[in-house]
Amino acid sequence: MWRRFRSAWQLWTRNDEFETELDAEISAHLAEHEEALVAAGMSRDDARRRARADFGPASTIRQECREATAFSIAAAFLRDLRYGFRLLHRSPGFAAVAVITLALCIGANTAVFSVVDAVLFRPLAYPQPDRLAEIAVAEGDQPTADEASFNGTQWEAVHAGTPALETAVFSDWGTNVNIVSAGAAATLKQQRVGMGFFHVLGVSPLKGRELHADEDRKGGPSVAILSYPAWKSTFAGNENILGRSILIRGEPHTVVGVMPDGFRSTIPAEVWTPLRPSRDGEGSGENYGIMARLKPEASWAQANVQLDVLHGAMFGPSAPREHARVAPLQAILAGGLRRPLLILWGAVGIVLLIGCVNLAGLLLARATVRGSEIATRMALGGGGGPILRQLTAEAIALGVYGAAAGVVAGTMMLTGLRNQASTLDLPFDIRIDARVVAVTLAIALGAAILFSLYPALRLSRLPLSAVLAESGTRIAGRTHHWGRRVLVLTEVCLSVVLLFSATLLIRSFTYLRTNARGFQAEGLTTGTVSLEDSRYQKASSVTHLFDATLERIRAYQGIEDAAVALTLPYERPLNIGTHTRDNRDITINLVYVSPEFFRVLRTPLLRGRYFTVADSATSPKVMIVNAAFLAHVFQGRPALGESLHVFGADVTVVGVAGNIVQRPGFGDFMPVDVTPTAYIPTAQITDRMIGIHIWFSPSFIVRSRDQAVAAQAMRASLAAVDHYLPLARVRTFDTIADEALAMQRFEAALMGALSALALLLAAVGLGGLIATNVSERRREIGIRMVLGATRGKAVVAASVPGIVLSAAGLAAGALAAPLAARVLRRFLWGVAPSDPVTLATVLAILLVTAIIASVAPALRIVRIEPAKILRQ
Amino acid sequence: MAKAIDLIQGTLDMLILKAVSLRPLHGYGILLRIQQLSSDVLQIPQGSLYPALYRLETNGLLKFEWGESENRRRAKFYSLTPRGKKHLHAEEEQWDRLRLGIAAVMAATPEEV
Fold it and tell me: What are phi and psi of A498, to 5 degrees?
């Protein structure tokens, strides 16, 4: 093979040399002949003519020589390939099973790889993406995506103190805002960015300009930049959009720019407004991201040294271990997705492996069936090489079909995957492109060729006499199914691993989804209002809005009760820092609620009292804490009467309520968990707290049997109190919980689908093995039945090997699965990576599947008619 | 001189291998050697020798070296590779069996059948 390849290569590359040598050889031949003829007495001229005539048509012979060396390879390959396709078409059943297997495996791989590629590998769609970074906090050497936020003081220090970098500040906290303009109204995703943000990313606006410095400071002119899709849809691509005034949350903003089509920010955003960074207010907490581009001639090492110099200014002496580092933007954007995606990729790889194992099994079975044909051909002088080539050609034909079907299947699966992933709000463009298709093709052909080689090699070394002798009788089998048995065993083992992992993730998701919520979600409907609005900058206006709206909602027919809260269960509350009486620094969650909140949610009061109307703006400040708060903060002391310093005032604990599940947002908690939370009454909101409405939009919670009535009541009541304030995101707690657990749901759903696929493939593989066995031993079985064996015994005898084989695979899987599941440890809650109940369940499911897959094909024995077989 | 006969299909390769097995030969030399060994019974169409040589070389049964002919011409001298030797051996055995088989059939007399 190598020799052929080399001579082909030589012919392509050194064509002239080949021709020269051929010419030299032929003319030498003619000359020798001519000499011989002259020596025999012929005249020189006659001898020359005679020599040419004896040699024959030179040009034809030259062509034959060329073909004999290199062109024969390409021609032979094409011939083999055509033969491969013909063979495949001749057995549509085999072709269908093989192509469907490949299509499912390759489709799943294509879909998952397109996500992996978009998030982890494909360079970001900015100019020179390798020079882009975010500043992140590292405690060891590795900066992480969760620690990439800074306060205003830190931002100023970085901006002024890193000459190696161009930096820009931005907020990753996107919110939905209402936009109103002459003849247009829409809810758009808003992101707030600082001056130079787009410049640092390296993308200039399509129309207009970036933010000016004076617009990016407190009190500066209000301006907005639109995304291309927003400009096209909401403003109908209006060419005169620049300079126009639009209302964002009721405040006029002048449009100064439109970004180009396809531009993506760090979060999905449709409108950008100035961030206006500061040291106080929002800037007093760690709410800013810092985007950085390495300047020409500068190095990352220099940038890190410059950040080290700023350590004191950024963290102070109290945090000696923390230091700021530049972290590649791609890694920061991929963030927490990296590990789940790699795990998913591994899982889909296992599915591919199982599929290939099936394919190898199919090809092996087919090769065995064709054994006598091939043996005959070899006996007639066909060499091992060509036969091997033809078997491989058939596999390549399979690979071609498989890849084509795989891309189609992959596109469909990706649509489903995208729907699942849409809840994750990824800033990545997930699509099937040439890159993904190239990888798919490589996988398909590689898998097909690799897994066809094993049966092909076996066949090309067949002991001829044995096969030829066998072909008449067909009592074959036992010896040469070992390869397939090992393959099926591997399949079962891998299925256990995958099914176990998937079940663990599903159980973990169910645990998080259903575990002690602390409230009664059934019958509750919520709706959100955005208060980042010029008319709600005073506590009194906010309180009035809440009181008046709640009063109207409760007056509606069919409404049991209603309340308002800053954040809902399953949502991330406001994290604030405070300190205890003994001067411990602690982080707690703070939620303002109307007095009926606990009653509406049916959350029990454990001690003390609820808020009442007597708790007003002028009465002493009070709070209700949850049970987790007692444990974490007061460490078991009776909490009633204790006080904490919150938003510049001392607040006294008057009650203790049951725990309500939330998204923690800090500390070492589960994705949804119970966290130390303090509730304060809406009546005691102060002007100092109004700033939190930049990030948090309060929600009304209504208890009613009829969801539509609840939504209608909220909408109408709000409209009656403030006509310009739209109600957004009307949801039930099912939706809210799903949104909070989108990542867990995504993982569980995908792993579930993949393991179902693996299970199916393993069953097909096992069933195929038994079916081949039965069809090969028809004659033997027929004879046994004539000799007195019952059909029942024959069926058992045929199916037992499959069940035994599966049992061995299950045993191997039972050992491997808990080890493999260790990778998942960080994604499991409420279930251990070695959970015996889960393992037992998975093994039971697989055992039942294996029994069905073994017995079903064996039942074909029932249809065997011994008399007929004997006559054959 | 006996009348020359054409080659049986597929035997040219075997004859070439046999011819070069004795010592390396160039193309014309192979031709002469076969004619000489067969006492001019076997006639090879001269041109058809070369495609066969190139095919055998590509398949790794022959190798060649550039050298000088008796008439001091630059020519390719072919010789057997180890694989070529094995192949020739196998062909010789097969040929023997075929020859004996055919001879046995042809030697049959009416009484024996």
Answer: -70, -45
Span between the terminal Cα atoms of chain B, in Å: 36
What is the model's pTM?
A: 0.70
Q: Which of B27, B59, B71 sits opposite A25 (nearest CB)?
A: B27
Q: Are A559 and A697 in contact (CB under 8 A)?
A: no
The pLDDT of residue A565 is 96
Per DSSP, A147 falls in state G
Give Cα A47 to chain centroid, integer Å.
Answer: 80
pLDDT of residue A373: 67
Mutate which: A20, A54, A65, vs B, most B CBs within 10 A: A65
What's the gap in Å between the CA of B27 and the closest CA on chain A?
A: 7
Q: Inter-chain contact B54–A65, Cβ cutoff 8 Å? A: yes
**Where residue A454 falls among pLDDT bands split at 50, 70, 90?**
low
Which of A7, A32, A56 is the closest to B71 by Cβ? A32
Query: Rounded CA gap, A658 and A681, in Å?
Result: 17
| Residue in the structure block whose two tokens are 């011409």 | B73
CB pairs under 8 A between A and B: 68
For residue A760, pLDDT beyond 50: yes
* Mean pLDDT (chain A, rounded): 83
Question: What is the torsional sign of CA A503, A506, A512, A514?
Answer: negative
The answer to whether B54 touches A69, Cβ cutoff 8 Å, is yes
Helix (H, G, I), strand (E, B) or coil at A256: strand
Of the ranges A283-297, A449-463, A553-567, A773-787, the best mean pLDDT one: A553-567
What pLDDT is stored for residue A335 in this prediction?
76
Distance CA A189, CA A220 (A): 22
Contacts of A70 in chain B (CB under 8 A): 58
Q: Give residue-wise pLDDT tens across range A21-39.
A: 888 888 888 888 888 888 8
Contact B78, B24 (CB under 8 A): yes
Q: How far is CA A351 from the centre of its chain?
A: 16
Per the CB < 8 Å rule, is A28 touching B48?
Answer: no
How far is residue A576's CA from residue A175's CA, in Å, rounded to a whole number?
Answer: 20
For residue B28, the chain A residues in CB contact (below 8 A) are 28-29, 32-33
Report which of residues A395 and A74 the model is more confident about: A395
Q: Which residues have a Cβ under 8 Å from the Cβ of A444 and sit 6 or more positions away?
A: A102, A106, A399, A400, A402, A403, A406
User: Per-residue pLDDT tens for A40-83?
Assistant: 888 889 988 888 888 888 888 887 777 777 555 566 677 677 77
What are the pLDDT digits (tens) for A97-151?
A: 888 888 888 888 888 888 888 888 888 889 999 999 999 888 765 655 567 888 8
Q: Mapping DSSP to helix (H, G, I), strand (E, B) and coil, where does residue A585 land? A: strand
User: Which range, of A69-83, A258-272, A401-415, averages the lowest pLDDT?
Assistant: A69-83
Q: Which pLDDT score is estimated for A9?
A: 46
Q: What is the number of alpha carbons within 13 Å of residue A360 lying toward its C-beta? A: 27
Cβ atoms within 10 Å of A40's Cβ, excluding its own: 8
Residue of chain A whose alpha carbon sits nearest to that of B70? A32
Provide the b/e sequence for A783-821 (b: ≥16 CB within 10 Å).
Answer: ebbeeeeeeeebbeebbebbbebbbebbebbbeebbebb
Summary count for chain A: helices (H), strands (E):
28, 22
Q: Please give the DSSP secondary-structure letter assigned to residue A71.
A: I
Question: Which of B51, B69, B75 faces A65 most closely, judged by CB atoms?
Answer: B51
Question: How far is residue A213's CA from residue A276's CA, in Å, rounded to a whole number?
Answer: 9
Residues A649-660, mean pLDDT to the nearest whole number: 92
Chain A hits for B57, Cβ within 8 Å: 69
Q: Tokens representing A456?
A: 């092909």
Q: Over 90: is that where the pLDDT of A295 sits?
A: yes
User: B47–A72: do the CB atoms touch at under 8 Å?
Assistant: no
How many residues make up chain B in this entry? 113
